[in-house]
User: Fold this.
Amino acid sequence: MAEKAYKFRFYPTPEQENLLRRTLGCVRLIYNKALAARTQAWHERQERVGYTQTSVMLTLWKKQEGLDFLKEVSSVPLQQGLRHLQTAFTNFFSGQAKYPNFKKKRNGGSAEFTKSAFKWKDGQVYLAKCSNPLPIRWSRQLPPGCVPSTITVKLDPSGRWSVSLRINDTRDLNLKPVNKQIGIDLGITSLITTSDGEKFTNPKNFQKLHKKLRLAQKSLDRKTNKKSNNYQKARLKVARIHAKIKDSRLDYTHKLTTQLIRENQTVVVEDLAVKNMVKNHKLARAISDANWGEIVRQLEYKAEWHGRELIKIDRYFPSSKRCSSCGHVVEKLPLNIRKWDCPECGSHHDRDVNAGINILRMGTRVGDRRKRSDPATTPASLRNADQERERPRSKAAGLAVSVCGATVRPEGSKSRKAGAKKQKVSNSDARESRAFS
Assistant:
């Protein structure tokens, strides 16, 4: 069983749009008031306010004279907004996200309806406090026998309405096994280069509309009165261009990842740190437009759906600088060098194809180690032997890291600060470092 979300466009009637806009405004108001209350409680009293306290605050806010309009919309989206705020704080305290921000009206908004706030009847959606069904443009049908568990209504900055139906798909989505493995190298000139030598062109969706977007943003910057109709028209024009870029990029990514999953049993990729890579201002725009993070994310969940295997290898593995024929690793290989010859064996390599081959080989080793460590497929004697062989090596590597600050990589370790002065260590640390030297 796989959890899926089906997204559709819909075109509400004037009465429905009025109700939905008021609902989105109330959700945004409650979210911002709860965020302000939690922030104030911490700064003034060092007190943590959770979801339960904010839920009590919501009841009190509804009784205030100036907030009577909160009763005119469904209470479920308001409660769900508080739950989303709690999730945002949980991610913040765990280090997975930054501190939550206030919601802004110009970004549109969303409202989540659980089963108690909508009705699914004859293939139509009836939201709470709305007598008519949503006029959804059904571009595809839901799987037979599936009933939505949660419905999310969203208004994007370009003014488009969409509804997302979350279901539990009970169908068997596993594809027929194939005897093909592939390693892919993500790039900018060629979006994906496979270990078979096939290259997928980067569509560069942002670059196609960059000039048009730049002119629209210039026109928006000239509008000084943000409450005027001309400002809103210019803002919508910019938002629609961004929406077009996003839609074309996402469409290409979905088609590409689906093709890779259908044609290959095992897909090996690098575990790239995209957030760190975009800090390079010379390549930030190109990397963001390439959509590497979304490609890996889609490959991951589609492989799980269809019974395929996705393997991620270490991001520090020198896939481009390593010769796929003899294993020699060159010291330097600038990005402007797309083809090179191995100084050891003389093999001629295409930079991206060579990287794809090395990624596939490294991923195959990782997959074999996984299978051997699986208790269901490996005898106990073999597992114990593997553990005994790996234990001294891992212990020595760990001590090397703690003593001299080395990094453990597949091709050996290098000092974190090449050429740096030796740090002072205690007598015990010095004895350990001499023992491993």
Q: What stands out?
A: The chain is about 45% helix and 15% strand.
